[in-house]
Amino acid sequence: MHTVEPDVVTDVLIVGSGPAGASAALALSTYGVANIVVTRYASLADTPRAHITNQRTMEVLRDLGVEDEVVAKATPQHLMGNTTFCTSLAGEELGRVRSWGNDPLVQAAHELASPTRMCDMPQHLMEPVLVDAAVARGTRLRFSTVYKSFVQDADGVTVTVEDRLRGDEYTIRAKYLVGADGGRSQVAADAGLPMGGQMGVAGSVNIVFDADLSRYTAHRPSTLYWVLAPGATVGGIGAGLVRCVRPWNKWMVVWGYDVTAGAPDLTTEYAESVVRKLVGDDEIPVTVKSSSAWTVNEMYAQTYANGRVFCAGDATHRHPPSNGLGSNTSIQDSYNLAWKLKLVLEGVAGPKLLDTYTAERAPIGRQIVTRANRSIGETAPVFEALDGLSPQTPEQLWANIDARKDDTEAARKQRARLREAIAFKVYEFNAHGVDLNQRYASDAIVPDGTPAPGFDRDPELYHQPSSRPGAKLPHAWITSGTRTLSTLDTVGRGRFTLLTGIGGTAWAEAARAQDLEIATVVIGPGQEYEDPYGDWARLSEVADGGALLVRPDGYVAFRHATAAASDAEADRLLTEAVRRILGHG
Q1: CATH 3.50.50.60 residue window(s) in the chain
Q2: Are 389 and 233 in contact (CB under 8 A)?
């Protein structure tokens, strides 16, 4: 038992203020759960780092009430999508991929899948939105505070931290500890979380700089410009990269280095030389703001928790930035965990509910680590099409690139190979299914006896909505009076929701009789919500008298395709489902 009086007491202590920690704090404070965030740093992120923000994350931010602020500060989707392959920004263009939902067919799929739009929201802009909202709702934030160690017992966790300003240590007593302290997580190490994969498989350098590059980019607006230049295949993420941070004057370059030889000396002269190599213009004014070295990792936690200690974000999945999955998965981890902590802390759910966090999120973490690293390898065929992987002089590479313009059979084949290789990068830049097809299997999901629907098309490229338990509630536009809203707007806000239609009165009554707070949504002619387009009738996969019980995170937990045989049956089935979901069954 805990005997020494702690200096500070809270319900949840979060270590780290990055996307995972900030979103955990925001969700918990939104739900009324007392929490403290500590970060070793004196400020929030000061470099762009993560930036691609996909539709599922935007749905989370919509539910947490900060979507509008993110949209106002982000680069919009239509400026993200001319992913360009070139010899330098000022040099020859080799091809483009319509990316991030900007292909017309993919754009239609995005509009059908969600009420939200993906955007480019650099981490140094995203963190203040999340943290400011969290603090406004009750989070207590402590900068310059280093996590040192924890001791847990049956009732809570005692964490020792160091105040870097005063130089002294103090203790924080929490019922639960969340380690969101990044890719070198000390909390995950101290918790002994088993990991798969390996760290440090390649090396990269980030160089943040200011320059007006509008003459090279405004006519082909994009988040990413990939540069195939001599040395680009060494380490790193597969090619030299020029990334737009803010159109068209704030940028970041990513360049590889040989990890076995160690990181280069990151002088301003070195950084500027790399920038000029990729931009291809020696005259344009360039101001280097910062440089940092990092390693490409391929590691994932097999377990996300140890007792009352949970980890989220890069602490549990460590991978390159390919596919833009890092902050998205981190925010979604925390969103999954927060409502479960709330219900357990309130005594509504049993501790078993918290076991479902690993069951649901660990497979996603492993999937995205694999996908991000595979995307690096999928850049190689672009070089291969230009014979750019075999050892050769820069002059020979330029000759190979130039040869594609010839009117010869060899050049025709080379052009075809190059087009195919660039088009295949759709798995990195338009992986809509990776973003939205996450399906859970855990004790917080009640199977309905139906077989898994599988996927009609490539599950990495295409989203396939489903209302089967374990899938995210499908999006459909419905109305309420003069308002048009998404089905996703009827759920969330920290509570369960039961959706039914005309003939589902028994389900609605059963929901109101539960000890758990369950909002009821009845969709049909003359009801509070109507389905004028018929989209919900098509997507819901249940009859008018059937029911869907949706969790606070928007996932379907229970489905009954038809009306209950009686009021008693509806009450029994729903009560049994709720007990199982809450860890009482």
Answers
A1: 8-73+122-193+301-372
A2: yes
> Quick one: average pLDDT of 121-125?
97
- Angle, helices 505-512/567-581, rounded to nearest 10 degrees: 50
Dist. CA 27–CA 44, nearest whole Å: 18
Tell me the percentage of the chain whose pLDDT exceeds 70.
98
Which structure tokens are listed for 515? 């000890």
Strands 169-179, 195-210: pairing kind: unpaired
User: Do the bridges between strand 518-523 and strand 556-560 make them parallel or antiparallel, or are there none, so unpaired?
Assistant: unpaired
- Smallest CA-to-CA distance from 207 within 262, 261, 124, 273 is with 273
Q: Could you report the per-residue pLDDT of 152-207, keeping only the tens digit for each?
A: 999 999 999 999 999 999 999 999 999 999 999 999 999 999 998 888 878 899 99
CATH for the 441-582 domain, from 3.40.50.300, 3.40.30.120, 3.40.50.720, 3.30.420.40: 3.40.30.120
**Integer Cα distance of 370 and 196 in angstroms:** 11
Q: What are the structure tokens assigned to 523, written together?
A: 């969709």
Right CATH number for 8-73+122-193+301-372 from 3.40.50.1240, 3.50.50.60, 3.30.930.10, 3.40.50.2000?
A: 3.50.50.60
For 376-397, write each residue's pLDDT tens digit. Answer: 889 889 988 888 766 667 888 8
